Amino acid sequence: MPDEAAPRTLTFDVERKGSTAIVHCHGRLVAGLNDLLYNQVSGLLPDHSRIVLDLTDLTHMDSMGLGALIRVFVSAKSAGKELVLINLGPRIRQLLGMTNLLSAFTVIAENNVIIP
User: Fold this and answer.
1) What are the domain boundaries of the chain?
2) Over the stretch 50-64, which tens digit does the pLDDT of each residue have?
3) Is 2 buried (19+), middle (13-18) or exposed (0-12) by CB count in 10 A?
């Protein structure tokens, strides 16, 4: 029941650095909010060759959120763009690992070292 009382918000801050857009995600990527991520990233694809999703402040992701992340990945790949994830929290990393999707993404740690 505590999850039902938690705020169901998802917000973004976008930082543009040349051909790279860094999307700082805040909140919960859950059912009902999953299109927000796709809309945010798809709007950046025409003008940026690299999209970095900073998941530092992403507190929760459910299966619909995972689907949204995959949808963004497929859209970026189809457009010939690179999608990178940074600062995965332990719960997000565990979810991607359990679903065998962690290896599909390029994940970079805080010190810019690629994690296998």
Assistant:
1) 2-115
2) 999 999 999 899 999
3) exposed
